[in-house]
Amino acid sequence: MTHKIAIDLTAYTPSRMDGINRYSFEILKALLNTNLDFLVYTSHPILPNKRIKVIANPEMSDNNFQGNITRLFWHQFQLPQYLKQDKISLLYTPVPEGMFFPVCPQIITVHDLLPIFFPEVYPRIKYYFQYILPYLLKSATAIIAVSQSTKNDLQKYYNIPSDLIHVVYPGYNSDNFNSILTPEANNIPAKYKLQNFILCVGETRPYKNTRRLIYAFSQLNFPDLTLAIVGKLSKMDKELISLPKELNIVDKVSFLGEVTDEELAGLYHTAKAFVFPSLYEGFGIPPLEAMACGCPVVTSRVASLPEVCGDAVYYVNPEDINSITEGIYQVLTDINLAAKLRNQGLERVKQFDYQITASRIKEIISINSNVNF
Length: 373
Prior knowledge:
GO terms for molecular function: glycosyltransferase activity. It comes from Gomphosphaeria aponina SAG 52.96 = DSM 107014. This protein is α/β, with parallel strands linked by helices and 373 residues long. 40% of the residues lie in helices and 15% in strands. The strands form 2 sheets. The chain has a 7-stranded parallel beta sheet, sandwiched between helices. Helix 1 (19-31) crosses helix 16 and helix 9 packs across helix 14.
């Protein structure tokens, strides 16, 4: 029997390609290459495909309080009507959203528990994770976690049975992030006036640990080396941008803001090292992107990062500034180590492919769409 599946992409925002939006888009592209019979509910005409059904106001997907509240009520009152009308057998959502009282089996995806661990960074969303998400998880037929680390957190904080949680690793955009250095990508550093530099990528929220990285960088004695920081400047640490001046390295730290994927690939290719000193990650795609471009990686030995990066990176203690400094120093000065990390990184990323991700998700959907409900 063929089961008709609904994929809920009402939270997807094309103009904001952060981690979860990128994940949702890549999952959709990969599932379109399978024979899974599904219909997509979305607020935006994502791709020209008959399986994409635009059913809501685009403002519903806004990444703000109003958008989140509107979507929460839509899931409880309007979504069930669509599911019944379209004779849906199962709902799959690539984000931690869903119905309190499901009218069909639902599979919910959880990427991380950041609002639990860093409630001060997510002053509103923390209440969603504390009071709403527990009910959604208990109403789910199955839960997808993007790493074993996230699965462990779900079991610990929500007391979810292990057999309900399936670990399915994301992939990365291998079309853009790969070992091929194009002439255009090679010219990107000059655009940002960079020559000999190390790279950090991510919005500068406190858990990304950018402040400690800048302190660590200030301890290095490489006169011509600069630190390039890619990502949106967070309002949580407005003084961060003035820190290099306080440390007398203002001319050696560049805040590049948000860049295109093509520009980012060029920066990965030409950086001496990629440094990712995060205090917590549910998965961590930037280290994969860097490895795929042949850039040696220095990252934290915390949460999901060892699980994702394996033995292909140099690990540091993210809470110890001296450890971060030492990690960068070792990769920059040990030619053999840097070459080893490049080679192992290129091998490591082969394990992460969105087609593999889509295949695993399809398996989980197929099994759970047979559940009596």
